[in-house]
Design goal:
Elements (H helix, E strand, L loop, with lengths): L2 H16 L5 H7 L5 H11 L3 H4 L9 H20 L4 H32 L17 H4 L5 H7 L6 H4 L1 H4 L5 H20 L4 H28 L5 H6 L10 H8 L4 H10 L12 H23 L5 H25 L4 H5 L7
Helix pairs in contact: 5-17, 6-11, 12-16, 16-17
GO molecular function, one term: proton-transporting ATPase activity, rotational mechanism
Protein name: H+transporting two-sector ATPase C (AC39) subunit
Keywords: Ion transport, Transport
Length: 347
C-alpha cells in the first residue's frame, strides 16, 4: 500500500478529531478558575468536553472523577484512531499506547506499596489490559508487588519483570525501571517492521525521546538515589539521537550534577537543567513542552507518515495532563501566573 493511500484517510480523521482540542483562550480561562466545580462547569459549558460532561453534576465533581472521565475518553479516541490501521502499523500503535498502560501499572504499584499506610486506592486504571494481554482482573487483585509481578505472567511485560522475583528485587524502584525498559524495547521491535520512510522518522523521534528520558533518569539517579555509574548505565534506554552509547556512559560517569549539566548543554539539552529552586519539579514539564513543539515541526515536514498518529495521541495526553495540573494548582490555591508555569502548553 502506498503512503498516500495509507495515510490520506487517517489524516482526514485526525484533522476532524483535532478540532476537539482546547485552544489558547480555553487555557487562559481555566487558569482563572478557583474550584474543581468551576473548572468542570467551564469545560462543560464552553469547550468540546461538553459532550462528556453534559449529564454530569459538575458542582460535586471530584478531581479523581474528572480524571477518570478524561482518561476513558482518551481510550475511546485512541481506539478510533487504531481502527484505521492494519497489520504492522496497528501493532506499532498498540505498542505506542502501552505507555499509558505502563503509567497505570506504575500507579497501581505505588498504591499497593502505600496501601498499608493510606488504606485507599482511588485511581482511574483505564488502560490496564486495553492494548496488551495483561489480565486486568488478576492484576487489580494484587495485594503486594510480588503478586503484581506474578499477575503479569504471560504478558508482553513478563520477560522484563520476572527476573525481579529471582533476584528478590521486587521493590517499587526496580519494577518501574523494568516496565520502562519493556516499553522502549517493545516499541523499537515493532517500529522496525514498518516501511523504511516511517522507520527513519521514528528512529529520529524515538532517539530524541530516549535522550531526554535518559538525561532525566541519570540526573535523578545521581541526585536522589545515589546510584553507581554502572547501575545508572544499566537502567538507561538503549536508544538515542544525539546521545550514543559512549556518550551515555560518559554522562553516567560524570563527577557531579554540575558536570552533567555542562555535558547536557553541549548536546543541546541544557534547557532541562535551569538552576531555579524548583528545577526538579519543572523537568518533566520541560521535556513534554520540548516534545510538544518538536512534534509540531515534525508534522509540517512529514504530513504523510505515522508521526501524524503519534502526534495526535501525545497532544491528547498532554491536554489531559494540563487539565489535571490545573486541578492540582486549584488545590494549592496558586495564581494563574504560577499555575501556567506547570503547563506543557505555553499560554
Amino acid at each position: 500500500m502506498d503512503r498516500i493511500t495509507r495515510f490520506a484517510a487517517v489524516n482526514t480523521k485526525i484533522r476532524a478529531m483535532e478540532r476537539n482540542f482546547l485552544q489558547d483562550q480555553h487555557y487562559a480561562e481555566m487558569l482563572r478558575k478557583r474550584s474543581i466545580a468551576e473548572l468542570a462547569g467551564y469545560l462543560r459549558e464552553n469547550t468540546p468536553y461538553r459532550k462528556l460532561l453534559d449529564d454530569i453534576n459538575t458542582d460535586k465533581l471530584s478531581r479523581a472523577t474528572l480524571e477518570r472521565i478524561l482518561r476513558r475518553n482518551m481510550v475511546k479516541n485512541l481506539d478510533k484512531l487504531l481502527y484505521f490501521f492494519r497489520g504492522n502499523y496497528k501493532e506499532f500503535l498498540k505498542a505506542l499506547y502501552l505507555k499509558y498502560e505502563i503509567e497505570d501499572l506504575k500507579n497501581l504499584a505505588r498504591d499497593i506499596y502505600n496501601s498499608s499506610e493510606t488504606g485507599l486506592i482511588d485511581r482511574p486504571y483505564a488502560f490496564i489490559g486495553r492494548y496488551s494481554n495483561v489480565p486486568s482482573d488478576k492484576v487489580l487483585k494484587a495485594e503486594t508487588l510480588r503478586d503484581l509481578i506474578m499477575a503479569l505472567e504471560g504478558s508482553e511485560f513478563d520477560d522484563y519483570v520476572k527476573p525481579l522475583l529471582d533476584g528478590k528485587r521486587e521493590n517499587l524502584f526496580h519494577l518501574e525501571m523494568a516496565l520502562d525498559t519493556a516499553y522502549f524495547s517493545i516499541l523499537k521491535k515493532r517500529s522496525e517492521k514498518l516501511e523504511n520512510g516511517d522507520r527513519k522518522i521514528l528512529e529520529k523521534w524515538e532517539g530524541m525521546v530516549s535522550d531526554l528520558y535518559n538525561l532525566q533518569w541519570i540526573y535523578r539517579g545521581k541526585k536522589f538515589y545515589m546510584l553507581s555509574p554502572e547501575e545508572l548505565l544499566n537502567y538507561t534506554i538503549d536508544m538515542g539521537d544525539r546521545i550514543s552509547f559512549l556518550k551515555r556512559r560518559e554522562l553516567c560517569y560524570s563527577i557531579n550534577l554540575d558536570e552533567l549539566d555542562s555535558m547536557a548543554g553541549e548536546l543541546g539539552y541544557g534547557f532541562l537543567f535551569k538552576k531555579d529552586e524548583t528545577g526538579d519539579i519543572y523537568m518533566e514539564r520541560r521535556i513534554n513542552r520540548f516534545l510538544f513543539y518538536r512534534l509540531k515541526a515534525l508534522l509540517r515536514r512529514s504530513p504523510m507518515s505515522i508521526i501524524q498518529a503519534i502526534a495526535y495521541a501525545l497532544f491528547l495526553e498532554f491536554e489531559i495532563k494540563d487539565i489535571i495540573s490545573i486541578t492540582e494548582c486549584i488545590r494549592y490555591n496558586l495564581s494563574p501566573e504560577e499555575s501556567g508555569r506547570f503547563l506543557i502548553r505555553a499560554v
